[in-house]
Amino acid sequence: MSSFNLVPIIILIAVLLIISSIVGRLNNSGKKVRWFFFGYLSLLVLSAIVYFLLPMEETQVGQMSTHEEFLEEMDEFYQKLNTGELDEIDPSYVLERWEFAFDGDALSIELGNQEDLNAVPIEVVAVEELQQEVIATYYQNSSHLLGISIAEYLSLPSIDLKHTTLEIIEPAPNELYFSSFKSTFPFRQYSGEKLMPDDIGYSSEIIIIQVPEGVSIEADEQIYVRE
Amino acid sequence: MSLNNVDIKRVIRQQFSYKCKANTSLFTSMIVIQLIAVLFSLSGTGMIGTSIGYNGVSIQFYSGDIVLVFTMIWAFITAIMLTTKTYTETDYVFVANHLTSNLSNIAFLFVASVIGAITSLLAVYLLKVVMLLFFDHGWMAASQEISVGQWVSGFLTTIFYLFMFSAIGYLIGQLTQRNKLFIVIIPAFIIGSLVIFVGSTILMDISQFYFNDSSFFSVFIKTVGTSFILFLISMVLSNGQEVRK
């Protein structure tokens, strides 16, 4: 997502050196200084034109949504989760789904390399309708940063069924870098926008493992098994 | 020669016009300062981090704050320079007194503030274009949408802030012209205040008073009122000096 590039800094330093040299040579003679000033003004106006012509839709990440919308979504999501209405959950919350054929009587669930125990909660649910199948679903009700969904950039765990053991392996460390432009402070003063917002992101995620009813579960203590 | 025989407005207009032409070199320093500010702004004005699921997420914030602050410093220094002998000498190309000299300086500083505001706002686009073209970042929430009214208020406020900082500089310049001891006293006072008021809320309160007010009318009264008072004190101080040193 990010690559720190030294090229623009080197270019800008070179530009500054050139400008300093030009300023020195101008010797503050009126006409040349005026040309220099109008040259700078033209550069700024050109930058503004280029900025508005740049395809920002492609450069920006995701779409805007509000905090209130997120709270509403979260309420609805957990209500359906708690009442077992998994089929009613908005399909857009499903980031990944793993389906495995399973005909055993006992299932062992292990966390392969989970270092952060609080990373993502895992819950096992027995489903009456489910036959000879184990389904693991990674739900995320809109991970929002500054009101924008970044779900597509997130690394997810890998889940695999080996014989009667379901193994959940967390992904390699993943650091995502984003950038955001803010208005200059006299403008923020009136719009109420903050340079550093109090809340930058809201996300709620959970892995639900659906097993056929009657299968006995042996799981790590971090995994919650619904009775 | 008495000014009774001369049209004051005409003298001020002539002096102002002359200063606009003669002091264009002051704007070359503004250009260099703004470009340095753009360079500094490339490292961002703030960063915040969180974690989502198994992912660490960082957001770097960019703004034109550094460009504007540097332009304020330029306005402050420019105003001090206008009170120095090199610049005051030019006043006497015309029939002048302290009143016309000060008023034409204030008019010039106002125009400089307008130019500083326009260029510092446009310099933000230079920063944005450099960032977008050369940095491979995921850009998000470019900025909160602001209404036309908020934009106009923000632009005018930028001018008022620059003008107020030039008024502070002009007063300091006049003080140092009146007595060279102020060259030592003023920096000592500023540094001393910063040391004494570390941990106190006084500096924060002053900054909040001007920069955290969301009413344009109130900001207008505060900034223009402060500028008026500072310029008035400067004019009174300069009247106590000889016409030409």
Automatic annotation (TrEMBL), chain A:
Keyword vocabulary terms for this entry: Membrane, Transmembrane, Transmembrane helix
Transmembrane regions: 6-23, 35-54
Entry protein name: Uncharacterized protein
The species this protein was found in: Oceanobacillus piezotolerans
From TrEMBL, chain B:
Highest rank taxon of the organism: Bacteria
Keywords from the named record: Membrane, Transmembrane, Transmembrane helix
Transmembrane segments: 26-49, 61-82, 103-131, 151-172, 181-204, 216-237
Protein name: Uncharacterized protein
Organism in which the protein naturally occurs: Oceanobacillus piezotolerans
